[in-house]
Amino acid sequence: MMRPGLLANVLGVLFVLGCEAPDIAPVAGLGDPYLPPFNDPQINLLSPELQPWLGFHPAIIIDDGKRPMQVQVPVRNLTNRQYLIDYRILFYDADEMELAPAMGWTMAALRPKQIVRLKAKALSTEAARYRLEVKWAR
């Protein structure tokens, strides 16, 4: 038969061994597994299910350095159904810093098999690059 003091000591040791101190170290960020330029696309579909249904044409960019950059991205609805999407175009300067204020979301109706131009104009002449973001309309 085991003595009560010995049993308490064994249980105490098991308890201490079973409890670990919580890890309070900061969690480091990981590198992106997708290498550039694929990890920072100019056309970003925030609703991935839209990918097989939309066909994007090369952008039309007017940037003469005297006026703010203008961008139009033609997109074709590849299906026989009408879709409503929201889009916005973000502008960046030569140092890859996002220019403020950011464009709000704009709705576009995509009729079956038709092309629509998604367009925006930067608010300053500092714009050197853009990114188009597309998602389902709310």
State the name of the first-level CATH class of the domain at 43-136: Mainly Beta
Strand content: 25-35%
Distance between the termini: 72 Å
Coarse shape? elongated
User: Radius of gyration over alpha carbons?
Assistant: 27 Å
Query: Which sheet architecture does the biggest sheet show?
Result: 4 strands, mixed
Percentage of residues assigned to helices: 10-25%
What is the average of the pLDDT values? 86
Q: What string gives the helices and strands in order?
A: HEEEEEEEE
- Reported CATH architecture of the domain at 43-136: Sandwich
Outline the low-pLDDT stretches. Answer: none
- Please report the number of helical segments: 1
Assembly state of the chains shown:
single chain
Specify the structural class: mainly beta
Strand elements, count: 8
Provide the spatial order of strands within the biggest beta sheet.
1-8-5-6
CATH fold-level name of the domain at 43-136 = Immunoglobulin-like
